[in-house]
Amino acid sequence: MRRAARGWITVILVITFLSIIFMMPTFLGDKLPGWWGKVFPDRGIRLGLDLKGGVFLLLGVQADKAVEHELSNMKESITDELNKEQILVKGFDNHDKTLTISFFSKDDLEKGRVIESNYKDIADISENNLSLSLTLKDRYITELQRRAIDQVKETIENRVLEFGLVEPIIQRAGADRILIQVPGASAADRERIINIIKRAAVLEFKIVKDAGPTKETLLAKYNVTTPEELASQGLELHPGDTGQENEGFFITESEAQVTGQYLSDARLIFDEFGRPAVGFSFRGEGASRFGQLTGENVGQRLAIVLDGTIKSAPVIQERISSQGRITGNFSVDEAKDLALVLR
């Protein structure tokens, strides 16, 4: 009987010892000595949000924006194609899910039908007077919206994983929402994680037309009282964050000929003064567009617009095609985070 009792006591002690060994990484973590992982398990139990806290977000995705974006891309592509064919266009109009192209004459309209073969599978095409209308098909709109949500989910996954966090939970929740849980994130990291996840990081490159210390000064110069009135002149007002006191606001061309969607890479770099900056590179079509934009505007200032604010506006010295940089009053972490969300 005593021998059986001693056996059970031994089993209990062994189980207790092994439990302590396996739980040590959970409670001590980085405080364990360096040799621990070579002898014993060094990965602790990942505590959930209810035990350790972290980040919990439920994001809504504006899937309808995918239709606007698709119509905008169609307009660009059709413009390029018609220009190559030297076909004159009176104008474009986007409404709901329809892109309408107006021509000057019946002859121009008939020539413009060259575009139909590229869009017949995704849009219903109709003619009205001197216009062609391309209305996106419902099944294609559904696919665009599904793709938009999947793309947002993938982007968030990439951002969170590159942040160095393990075991995040990122999944679709309903038709147009995404659930994000990052257990164990420290209090110091939570704000950065939320900003990285939520930030749009819309990057645009525009030609500067004017700059001034105040909004009122610039608007008066163009004989308007509100920024909205500039639109009729093909112009747009942006706040500036370039570090120059006399350049609190800029006026640029409304249309961005090059945007961040053409970037192939973005990374932390340091400028010639050792200040953090973000270097970027373009892929094929982006390099071609950027080369054309800079080549046609040598001597003018190029605004680098981030989320509506101009971060820098260097003078174009020569044609640039493949790469550039964004400078500003960045800390190292801010530059790293910006590079991450631009990728």
Structure description:
With 343 residues, the chain is an alpha+beta fold. The chain has 4 domains: 2-45; 65-139; 148-197, Alpha-Beta Plaits (2-Layer Sandwich); 203-342, Gyrase A, domain 2 (2-Layer Sandwich). The protein contains 11 helices and 16 strands. It has helices at 2-28, 36-39, 49-52, 65-84, 106-112, 116-119, 138-162, 187-198, 215-221, 284-295, 332-342; strands at residues 54-60, 91-95, 98-102, 123-128, 131-136, 169-172, 177-183, 203-212, 235-239, 249-253, 258-259, 263-270, 276-282, 302-306, 309-312, 323-326. Strands 8, 9, 10, 11, 14 and 15 form a 6-stranded antiparallel sheet that branches. β12 and β13 form a beta hairpin. The longest helix has 27 residues, at 2-28. The termini are far apart.
What key attributes describe this structure?
single chain, 343 residues, alpha+beta, Alpha-Beta Plaits, 6-stranded antiparallel beta sheet, 4-stranded antiparallel beta sheet, 16 strands, 26% strand, globular
CATH class of the largest domain: Alpha Beta
Order of helices and strands: HHHEHEEHHEEHEEHEHEEEEEHEEEH
CATH architecture of the largest domain: 2-Layer Sandwich
At the fold tier of CATH, the topology name of the largest domain is Gyrase A, domain 2
Estimated helix fraction: 25-40%
Largest sheet: 6 strands, antiparallel
* Global structural class: alpha+beta
What general form does the structure show? Answer: globular
Count of folded domains: 4
Write down the overall mean pLDDT: 79
Strand content: 25-35%
Roughly how many Å apart are the termini? 70 Å
- Number of E-state strands: 16
Q: What is the helix tally?
A: 11
Low-confidence stretches: none
What is Rg? Answer: 28 Å
